[in-house]
Design brief:
The complex is a heterodimer. Helices cover 41% and strands 18% of the residues of chain A. Chain A has 6 domains: 11-141, GAF domain (Beta-Lactamase, 2-Layer Sandwich), CATH 3.30.450.40; 149-259, no CATH class; 338-522, 2-Layer Sandwich (Dna Ligase, domain 1), CATH 3.30.1490.20; 529-711, D-amino Acid Aminotransferase, Chain A, domain 1 (2-Layer Sandwich); 716-932; 939-1068, Beta Polymerase, domain 2. In chain A, 44% of the residues are buried. By secondary structure, chain B is an alpha/beta fold. Chain B folds into 2 domains: 37-173, Rossmann fold (3-Layer(aba) Sandwich); 187-354, Rossmann fold, CATH 3.40.50. Chain B has helices at 8-23, 27-34, 82-98, 119-133, 152-166, 187-206, 222-233, 262-267, 277-282, 335-344, 351-354, 357-371, 377-402, 406-424, and strands at residues 38-47, 53-64, 70-77, 104-111, 142-146, 214-218, 237-245, 250-255, 286-289, 300-303, 324-326, 347-349. The longest helix of chain B is centred in the last third of the chain and has 26 residues, at 377-402. Classes of the chains: A alpha+beta, B alpha/beta. At the A-B interface, α22 and α28 of A face α4 of B.
Chain lengths: 1073, 428
């Protein structure tokens, strides 16, 4: 893969280089053809090779060749020796038997190596190597011909194998000895007693020798004579115990196997550099088709060595992969690996996962038709130590220590780090390698993906922490190369991104020696107009953790489908929805009414804009207006929405400008082929890997491409949790045993409980509706993702309000979990909704859902707690006295003495539990709250209080009309937590003008505080500072509190600065501080 | 009904009792109209995709057909109860009567969760429903329509089954069909236009020139969009509209004091009536909080979004200049707020009447189907205008002469029309 190209070369030079390369290849091809004809004599072969070489060199007319073989010389006509010469040894079984020379008759311009090009240096070596193999092959063939041909009778008299061995002992002593040794072992295994005693004797000798060695005695070298004698004896025993055919067969097989042994040795040596490994692989690749053999054990050993070499030491992975991979598969890959000199790097986790996935599928496809054809996009790799090499080359080794710094420091420095990386230069091997890769890709868009050692290891999911970058890859080569280098640098920089470091720190992976491999893949898709994209793409999970119907089983899987590039399927979306399907039951849709189907359909599409050379997100309708019927496979993706009815588009009559087209994937779901294929893929992979898997894929309109394959996300929020069995029953809030998914919801501070009985007794429609309103209000007040909603029946249902709280998604958008309680009514237990009315919103925002069946005798349901815990609703929303019976707001910490609620779910066991646990319980949440781990638990509130004081002090109260500033001692949630707000109540008495100015000033504070909080915690909040205003009516603290409907204690007055009469400032202290 | 808690059927009966008192209806009429004439309960076995069979429960209530064939939707709901269906069938009777179309009231449903059913299973369920009741429904007896969780596709399956059972074409069996498959033109416009037809008449009666008025609209969906279109065409000026912003999960009011331009707003609006906020601001619209629609200096308020939007709290924010509230949504005004509006003398066109354009157009669909001749759109809208205008004037006259509030007058007129038909037929 190495080439002599330089990125700065002009097109002419590039053309020249390519031309040379093609000459070299055709020369090699001619020589291969000559060497494949075994009927030729050696002399004839030499002459033909001599004639074939010059056309492959840069200046054929002045090029001449000489082959030295033993004492013989074979020359081009009129050969003259000149100083402009290059040469290579011809070896047979490691012994030099001759030499190949190429020289020019006159001086030529200086090239890479004297007058010769780098490619020519390689070429002459390859030809010499091939000649060596040919000679060896010829010798052996002759030998066996002698044995089996016209001399058979004679041979039979003299034992045919004997002749072969004689020949061998004369030509290749070491091979002869190795074969003798193998025969001795073979006889031993066969249980031939003489052989055993021979082995024993041989062994004794060895032992004694070693003993001497240890005794610091000059070790006696076993004389060759003795070894020969041993061989004699061995074959004598063989002749007595084995048939002639068997001996001949064995010997023949061992000779063949031996030919690959050198290469194998290099491959098996863990200290070989990547360069040596690839060389040996190339040799093996040439040898194997020529009859060289590997024993099964040897082949296994080589496979394992290569898996370890390229992918991982993890035994789980090796055990699986070795069953599915052939040497051929490595050969396919080896031409596209870019690496620094002396590289000992690997290809990284993502590459490993994809390699495994595609091997498993292509093996299985031979047996299972349903799998169809699964392709893998063309991929180049940079080995994982490339990043280390890059750091050393740019003297950036210090960066590695970054991971041990404080996280806010890392966060602060990261943007600069990215810039530094992007301004660094790359070692020339890498630049050359990437340049060749670009030639290989041409102007097709590519994606540069991280493939680090930590990523996608079995057992840890390190998904999405590192970068993947799309490149449109258009324009002249230099521009494209620059963009590619830039992208690689950026992916390298992401090794040090604060989120990744934090994630590693939380999981004890910080000390892991992380290296970053790179995968450069051709983007799957096709060019349509000025855009490039696949018809559709998606992510498929073999286990469905978001079931929307009781009829869907976990093993029916889950599919997130989007039109265009798969980026929108991979991440949860805040502004759009993928189409969700359970592949094994595709007809049970999440959205049933036509309106829902339209509302929750993808509206945007990610594509590569070839004209602007960039990745971009388009409105799908806009795109359709532009390219219309050119969209690949549109009948599989789109439906026509007309008169409230979705129907399949009828090709020719669809007006792409006027018609309302909706992405439904109806065609794909109903057309048959695709879903069964996907189910087969998921099942095959899951059973091969032994764990649930998730895959990324794309469909270009013609073929299915596998883009990634890994164990299904094991992040703490979605992993199967251990369900503690030994909890005292009073600390358990509920257990569940139906429709449980995997994951946990940790550190819940508040429970909003709609009492099913009380709710059922509400008689007025407006009161029922008000319950929904209260939930909506609480949603804006309670700490985000720290409260759960529990209530009867079908939430969000548009139908009978009595059977479920009427809310929309925006009323519950900040909850951590929605729990529908299905209480028995008379003799029947009502259905739950599975959150179907806002199911996709729940999925996209990560709000968990669980149905509870309290009347099931197998489950616990702590009704007592829910009914008797103090209800603080009226402290928060005093106006809703009437409904306080039905809506209970429980402050968990206050009720349980400082504990929080933990919900652990395990789908494999169909069990979930919610229990109260003290701070520092083992199940710490990841992400936001996890940051606080090991730090001062009050640091967030302390910082917030300090900032609030600063604001009050600096607000220039008299000038801006501020009379007093109060901090809201948030009755619920407090100031603690990285996502808490600073809530101020400002008693304002100024003019509208002043208010405007004050608001602008506060807005500035908000911006600064949010930014600082981001650095401190990694959380981007939209609004950290929330200010409310009261006017003159709030003359004192009491009335100010009353204006908000809060008790007086909820406010804390902050000191502000008022101007003293003589222009001096004085601090007005609040009376109670 | 001994069940505690909210019961829609009881509520509908109470509402009827109140009107019956006003009308001083005799005991027999009351008894007849307090409950459906006929109820059908039946089981629908459906073969599921996996080969198993599930049995679903289906209903059809025909509340009253004294004025003509029953008319009303079919609901698919997992917790459908007969009481809900009864209440809704009664409401349909009043709704048809208020616009004076010759139809009675009906409603039907199936206890099922369509989320648990594949499309094929839903088709079999629809066909099963029709087979179970084919003899007791039909263009001359009872005409179903789409409702909660049912859509035009379900209607076509049902129509097809009905025609198969009866061995002939009966496009008038069911409404809500797509145009070209027996649907009527003008359906999309009907509710919004109907609303403005009544508004136009109200202004005329109040002696206010449309051209001199301005309006603030809540919602920017189908109803609001067509209402704004027609109102603007008549010369009115819409100052502001509010709509839901999906990405912010909040609603906003967009205001342009010189009057909004519907065309340019529609260009930046998604399918669900969500206006692109940055583009709107670029076009010079002020973006105000969602609640702000109610506190505009307009003559007319048109709540055309959700129920309970004008409540005891925000009713105080309504500016003194507001003269008319035209209820485009269902139940947008809470009873407390209604009281306040009454006291302030704001003229309210009740939802019941104001959004009856939809049911009127369903009636037109049926008429066209029965004669198998379809009108051009102008004709549909023209006839809609006549119906709505006449309906409004009748209610208005009654309100004026009997000194009733419009909402009460609308109910009184419907119940009296139905009760009268029962008497004319000699039933009571």
């Amino acid at each position: 893969m190495m080439s002599q190209q330089d990125p700065s070369k002009t097109a002419d030079e590039l053309f020249c280089t390519l031309h040379e390369r093609s000459k070299e290849l055709s020369c090699l091809y001619t020589i291969e053809e000559i060497l494949s004809n075994f009927s030729l004599s050696l002399e004839e072969v030499f002459h033909r090779v001599i004639a074939a070489i010059p056309p492959g060199w840069q200046f054929p007319k002045i090029c001449q060749v000489r082959i030295v073989y033993g004492s013989e010389l074979y020359d081009s006509p009129d050969f003259v020796e000149t100083p402009f010469v290059q040469n290579a040894d011809i070896r047979v079984q490691d012994a030099v038997v001759g030499r190949l020379l190429v020289c020019y008759t006159e001086p030529t311009p200086e090239a890479d190596c004297g007058p010769f090009l780098q490619g020519e240096v390689k070429l002459i070596q390859t030809i010499a190597e091939r000649l060596g193999h040919f000679i060896l092959h010829q010798r052996l063939r002759l030998m066996f011909e002698e044995m089996s041909g016209e001399r058979r009778e004679e041979a039979a008299a003299k034992k045919s194998w004997r002749i072969a061995l004689d020949l061998l002992s004369n030509t290749d002593q070491s091979l002869f000895l190795r074969i003798s040794r193998k025969m001795m072992n073979y006889l031993g295994w066969r249980g031939v007693s003489e052989a055993r005693s021979l082995l024993l004797r041989h062994g004794e000798n060895q032992d004694r020798e070693e003993l001497f060695g240890e005794a610091n005695w000059p070790q006696e070298k076993t004389s060759l004579d003795r070894l020969y004698k041993l061989s004699e004896e061995t074959f004598k025993i063989a002749a007595a115990n084995l048939t002639d055919e068997e001996i001949l067969g064995r010997v023949q097989k061992w000779i063949n196997e031996d030919r690959s042994s050198d290469a194998v040795k290099v491959l098996e040596n863990i200290y070989s550099s990547l360069n040596e490994v690839l060389d040996s692989m190339r040799r093996l690749k040439l040898l194997l088709p020529q009859g060289a053999q590997l024993s099964r054990a040897k082949a296994d050993s080589v496979r394992v060595a290569l898996i370890r070499r390229f992918f991982t030491d993890q035994l789980e992975y090796i055990n699986i992969l070795k069953k599915y991979v052939d040497l051929e598969d490595f050969f396919d890959m080896m031409g596209r690996i870019i690496f620094p000199p002396d590289s000992r790097g690997k290809l990284g986790g993502k590459s490993a996962g994809l390699f495994l996935g595609s091997r498993v599928l292509s093996q299985a496809a031979r047996r299972a038709k349903a799998l169809g054809t699964v392709k893998k996009p063309k991929t180049w790799y940079i080995t994982s130590d490339g990043v280390i090499n890059f750091l050393q080359y740019n003297n950036l080794e210090d960066v590695i220590e970054q991971k041990y710094k404080d996280i806010d420091e890392v966060r602060l420095e990261y943007p600069h780090l990215v810039q530094v990386f992007k301004n660094c230069s790359f070692p020339s091997e890498i630049v050359k390698g990437l340049s060749v890769a670009l030639d290989d890709f041409g102007e097709t868009p590519i994606i540069v993906r991280s493939s680090s050692l930590l990523e996608d290891r079995m057992g840890t999911a390190f998904a999405g922490k590192y970068k993947s970058l799309f490149l449109a890859n258009q324009g002249d080569k230099k521009k494209r190369l620059d963009a590619l280098l830039d992208a690689v640098a950026e992916v390298y920089a992401s090794t040090f991104n604060p989120d990744a470091i934090q994630y590693r720190a939380e999981r004890g992976l910080l000390d892991f020696h992380e290296e970053m491999g790179i995968m450069i893949q051709a983007v799957v898709g096709r060019k349509v107009g000025r855009y490039f994209f696949p018809a559709f793409a998606g992510v498929a999970f073999s286990r469905n953790e978001f079931r929307w119907s009781a009829r869907i089983r976990r093993e029916d899987g889950l599919l997130r489908l989007v039109p265009g590039l798969g980026t929108r399927a991979v991440d949860r979306l805040s502004d759009d929805y993928p189409v969700l399907v359970a592949p094994a039951q595709p007809s049970l849709r999440v959205n049933v009414s036509q309106e829902e189907m339209v509302r929750y359909s993808p509206r945007k599409i990610d594509v590569i804009d070839l004209e602007n050379n960039c990745f971009t997100t388009k409105d799908i309708r806009e795109l359709l207006r532009e390219i219309g019927p050119e969209y690949p496979s549109l009948d599989k993706i789109l439906s026509l929405y007309r008169d409230g009815l979705l129907k399949p588009p009828l090709g020719l009559v669809t007006d792409f400008v006027k018609e309302d087209l909706v992405v439904t994937f109806d065609g794909l779901i109903h057309s048959g082929g695709f879903m069964p294929q996907l189910v087969a893929i998921l099942k095959t992979l899951e059973s091969a890997l032994g764990v649930p898997v998730d895959v990324e894929f794309a469909f270009d309109g013609q073929d299915f491409y596998l883009l990634q394959c890994r164990p299904q996300s094991q992040s703490a929020e979605e992993a199967a949790m251990e369900i503690p069995a030994d909890l005292p029953s009073d600390s358990v809030l509920f257990t569940a045993n139906r429709f449980v998914s995997n994951g946990r919801v940790a550190d819940i501070t508040h429970i909003v409980y709609i009492d099913p009985d009380r709710y059922g007794e509400i008689a007025a429609l407006s009161d029922l509706a008000a319950v929904g309103l209260i939930v909506g209000k609480l949603n804006t007040i309670l700490p985000r993702r720290r409260f759960i909603l529990m209530g009867p029946g079908r939430w969000g249902s548009r139908g009978d309000i009595k059977l479920g709280v009427r809310v929309t998604y925006s009323d519950i958008s900040n909850a951590a979990m929605l729990i529908e309680v299905a209480r028995k009514k008379g003799h029947y237990v009502p259905d739950v909704s599975f959150g179907t009315h806002f199911f996709q919103d729940l999925v996209e925002s990560g709000i968990r859902y669980l149905p509870l069946y309290p009347d099931d005798p197998q489950v616990q349901f702590n009704d007592q707690f829910l009914k008797s815990a103090p209800n603080i609703l009226l402290q928060i929303l005093p106006a809703h006295k009437k409904l306080a019976d039905a809506v209970r707001l429980i402050d968990v910490a206050r009720t349980t003495g400082g504990k929080t609620l933990q919900v652990l779910m395990n789908a494999d066991r169909e069990k979930a539990i919610a229990y109260f646990a003290g701070p520092g319980s083992t199940h710490r949440p990841a992400g936001a709250a996890g940051l606080a781990a090991g730090r001062d638990p009050n640091e967030h509130s302390r910082w917030r209080r300090r900032m609030a004081e600063q604001i009050a002090r600096l607000c220039d109260a008299p000038r801006r009309g501020v009379a007093a500033v109060y901090l809201l001692e948030d009755a619920i949630g407090g100031l603690d937590g990285p996502d808490a707000e600073i809530s101020l109540l400002i008693h304002f008495e100024g003019t509208a003008e002043q208010k405007k100015e004050l608001q602008a000033w506060l807005e500035g504070w908000n911006a600064a505080l949010t930014e600082t909080n981001l650095f401190r915690t990694g959380l981007r909040l939209e609004r950290l500072l929330v200010c409310r205003f009261v006017g003159r009516e709030a003359a004192d603290k009491k009335s100010a509190a009353a204006a908000l409907g809060l008790p007086e204690e909820a406010l804390f007055e902050l000191p502000i600065v008022t101007k003293a009469p003589r222009g001096r400032k004085r601090v007005k202290s609040p009376p109670n501080s | 009904m001994a069940v505690k808690g909210f019961n829609p059927y009881e509520m509908a009966q109470k509402q009827f009792d109140k009107v019956a008192d006003l009308l001083q209806l005799d005991a027999a009429s009351r008894e007849l109209l307090r409950q459906p004439l006929r109820e059908y309960h039946f089981s629908i076995p459906v073969q599921m995709d996996d080969g198993s069979v599930r049995v679903f429960r289906g209903f059809r209530c025909q509340h009253n057909d004294a004025r003509g064939p029953c008319k009303g939707g079919i609901r698919f709901h997992p917790q459908e109860t007969i009481d809900t269906v009864r209440a809704l069938s009664m409401w349909m009777t009043w709704k048809c009567a208020v616009v004076d179309i010759p139809l009675g009231g009906g409603k039907g449903g199936v206890v099922c969760d369509p989320h648990d059913l594949s499309a094929r299973e839903q088709e079999r369920l629809c066909r099963g429903w029709v087979r179970a009741i084919a003899k007791d429904v039909g263009p001359l007896r009872d005409v179903p329509a789409p409702d909660v969780m049912t859509n035009p596709q379900h209607m076509l399956w049902m129509l097809d089954e009905f025609e198969t059972v009866h061995g002939a074409k009966y496009p008038g069996f069911i409404t809500g069909k797509p145009v070209g498959m027996g649907g009527s033109l003008g359906r999309t416009e009907a509710t919004g236009y109907g609303l403005v037809f009544t508004l136009r008449e109200a202004l005329r009666e109040l002696g206010i020139k449309v051209e001199a008025t301005s309006a603030s609209v809540q919602g920017f969906g189908n109803v609001a969009q067509y209402a704004i279109e027609l109102y603007t065409k008549l010369g009115g000026k819409v100052l502001s509209v509010s709509c839901w912003d999906q990405s912010d999960q909040a609603s906003y009011t967009y205001r342009k004091k010189t009057g909004i331009n519907l065309k340019e707003l529609l260009m930046i609006t998604d399918r669900f009536g969500g206006i692109d906020k940055s583009k709107a601001e670029a076009l010079g619209y002020e973006r105000l909080p969602g609640e702000a629609w109610i506190e505009q200096d307009a003559d007319i308020l048109i709540p055309a979004a959700l129920e309970n939007q004008i409540n005891a709290e925000n009713v105080k924010k309504i500016k003194p200049g507001v003269k008319v509230v035209a209820e485009g949504a269902n139940g947008p005004t809470t009873p407390e707020a209604d009281e306040v509006l009454k006291q302030r003398g704001v003229f309210v066109i009740p939802d019941f009447l104001a959004n009856a354009g939809g049911v009127t157009c369903s009636y037109f669909e049926q008429v066209q189907c029965n004669q198998n001749y379809f009108w051009p759109q102008e004709e549909v809208l023209d006839k809609l205008d006549q119906k709505m205008t006449a309906a409004f004037l009748a209610v208005y006259e009654l309100a004026k002469t009997r000194k009733l509030f419009m909402r009460d007058a609308a109910y009184v007129i419907s119940v009296s029309r139905v009760a009268g038909a029962c008497k004319d037929r000699g039933w009571v």
